[in-house]
Structure formats: structure tokens, C-alpha cells
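Hi V.,

You were right to ask for the full record rather than a summary. Here it is.
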Amino acid sequence: MYVPSLVENNIKTVLNHNLHECHQLKFKYYSFFFNLCCFIFVIGIIGIILYYKYKGQINVKEKQKMENQKRDYILYNLRKFQNIKNKYITNIPFH
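Predicted structure:
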């Protein structure tokens, strides 16, 4: 028995082949774009980590400068508290 068809078998085959090629091309471009984005993301993360690691290290001069600033701050506060302790509360001289 013959089944009627609106489209010839050759046309179906050609269309299926063209659609399959279009799908492969689209998949190829999407895969390339996705891989490129992932590569840029990974390189960016690695770059940021390396930058912070490099900038996070303090050289010897900066370390000494920071230690001197800490020491000066502590000594300043000690002198200030000693001056406050040595002052009389009412300025009345005690003999």
C-alpha cells in the first residue's frame, strides 16, 4: 500500500543533512565561545591571585618603616600617659 507524502524523500534527506550541518556548526561556535570564556576566567583568577601574592609581600625597607611607626606610636602614647600621671589633678602644690 502506498502512503501519500507531501515532501519527497530526497528533499527530506537534503534538509536533514543541512540541519545536521547547521547544528554541528552552531555547536562548534558555542563550544569555542564557552571554552574561550572559561579560559579567560581561569587566567583572570590566576592573574588576580598572583598579583595579590606579589603585592602582599613587603620588602625589608617597608617592613622596617612599619616597625618604626609602631614603635613611635607606642612610645608617644607611653609619654602621653606618663605626663598625665605626673600632672596633679588640681594644680595645688604639695610640699
